[in-house]
Amino acid sequence: MQRSLPPTNKKLRILLLGKTGNGKSRTGCTLLNDKKAFCHKLSPNSVTGACERQDRRVRDYTLTVVDTPGVFDTKQSIEEVFEKITQSMVLSPDGYHVVFIVLKYGQKFTEEEANAIVHLEKLFGEALFKFAIIVVTHADLYKNSREDGEAPGQLDYMMEIENKTFQRIFEKCWKRFIFCDNTAEDLKVEQGKLLDVAEKLVSKNASERYTNELFEIAANALRKIKEKQEQEKRAFERRQEELERDARRANELQLDLEEEERKNRCLQYEKEEADRYKRFMQQQFEVWRQEREEKSQKIEMLEAERQRENEGMLRRLEELQRRKEEDEKLTAQTIQALDAKANQTTKLEEKLTKTERELEKLNIMFEGERKSNEILRQEKEQSDQNTQAMQQQFQEFKRATEEEAKRKECLDALRQRENEERMEHLEEMRNALETRSSQYVEDYSVDGLVEMFRRLPKHEQQEVIDEVSPEVREKAIEAGACFPKDATCILADGDVLKMEYLQQGDEVQVVHPDGSLDYQRVFMFGHADPNAESPFLIFTTENKRQLSISPGHYLYVQSQDGKMAMVPARNVKVDDALCTYIPENGTTKISAVTEIRVEILQGLYNPHTKSGTIVVNGVLTSCYTEAFSPVWAHRLLQPMWFLYKLAPWINRIVSKDGMPVWLSFLDIVKSVWEKERLFAWK
After folding, report:
1. Would you identify the family this protein belongs to, as annotated (predicted)?
2. Which CATH superfamily is domain 2-211 in?
3. What is the C-alpha separation between 295 and 309, in angstroms, rounded?
4. Which of 63, 248, 529, 555 is 20 to 30 Å apart from 132, CA to CA?
5. C-alpha to C-alpha distances, 335 to 72, 238, 320, 344, 598, nearest whole angstrom
6. pLDDT tens-digit readout, 199-258
7. Rounded to whole angstroms, how far apart are CA atoms 26 and 183?
8. What is the CATH number of domain 488-681?
């Protein structure tokens, strides 16, 4: 898929590919006229650990250069290669106008580089070379050799490279190349040369960019991140509102705290007033106690005086009684003389009556004093009770005041600590959200998405690459459903034969549905192309069997009920159990998958047997692929087996890629049916 560049959006995107040590990073520096744009040094090991992107304003457009690590280094695993390719797509998800394939002058074009270019062709298709230009670095060495008369012309030099793969790629690039001297003091001249040839290619391609569905996967991943960031931004705004509410609440709490402090000051004032009142009460109580003691002393003195008076009155009464008795005796003795002395007797009676009245008065006074003493005693008891009550009230007031003061102190300390913790938490959240918000990019364009990606922390960038890379790998390897030419089969005579030497009519080992081993003839090949290169999944089992198979090819996996089920190789996972052949005892054994990796191997072979099964590299596989459902494929190929029995030569009529002509026709019919939404093939 190719996308036209809007004329108003003046941009030029260039991707640098090449082997480590060829000078990719230096070429990027030359393109940007900045010797420090990319990290580089003379080293056989890759200096660029990850893809780097640099943007500069050059001429009248924005120049974007993406430098890749050693994608051409076959010592890197295919997973690492996919990761680097994914990075280059993420850094320019709308594609590239120009792809610079960087070679080094004077260095032999190795098979390593040739295979790497073939791998890229397999991954990206031949359309990649429509946008490719070969850049030969170290042009200073060529210039010196040319001055010495030792070097041929530049085109002759390119044509004399003795590598068929390179010459094929050179032809696909329409022999576009340029020599570049990255060591020049003034890089502006070299920059102009590179930009001129790049602009010429962009003009020829009508500003189209190289892109495909893998770039769209990368763009979708960035859009997901953008959507996630938008969600985070909305969450951030909500959190900001919450923080503002918390801040307002904190202010309200601060006001409440100040109000509480004011109340505490009031309480403190009341406490001081209570203390003053307490001291006053203590003073009053002391005065009252002293007055009470003085009053008690006075009462005691009055009681003692009244006691003495009463005793005197009793003595007087006794004396009067004694006198009365004496008078009565005298009266009795002198009763006769009374008549004579009537007047004297009358006076004596009056005197006695007066004495009795005085005695009654004394009794009344004594009773009054007794009642007064009783009242004083009751008042004393009431005063003692009041004193005790006042002391109890004072003690309770004192305890309540102390408890209230302690409670207020604890409450103030707790609120102060909670307020400080809340303010610290709010400050931390505000700082974290402000840091996160600085990563947001409002630009929704592709450049905006890339800028957003570049602003992410390194670990989050790696998470994006790790998420997209498997999908890129899955899309890149989804084509093909065969075995490589180095895969082996076991013949009826016990020999082990590679796929590239297998022929129609050879008897190979198969497994029947009941699990028994047998040998059946190969009656046709779905594919038989020894030169094709494709990605293959390589499964390693516990018993050291290693199977190389295309992702769309079926193989047998043990299901949960213990039965063997056909599953596409792409869906097989580590710990899934495969059926393997044990040559030592001629039996089969279930063995778990311990490792799965991807490699690009040569050859595409797909032999077919009557049972639809075949043992490859000691592992039971199917002869069928995702091109047709296994049930339909088995039904359709059974008549071909009978036809092979009648005319074995019929299946030897093959097309260019090793597929029988009639099978190619059947594939076309299947495609038409699928377009008409007839899913019988599935």
Report:
1. Belongs to the TRAFAC class TrmE-Era-EngA-EngB-Septin-like GTPase superfamily. AIG1/Toc34/Toc159-like paraseptin GTPase family. IAN subfamily.
2. P-loop containing nucleotide triphosphate hydrolases (3.40.50.300)
3. 20
4. 529
5. 171, 130, 20, 12, 165
6. 999 999 998 999 888 888 888 888 888 888 788 888 888 887 887 888 788 788 788 878
7. 8
8. 2.170.16.10
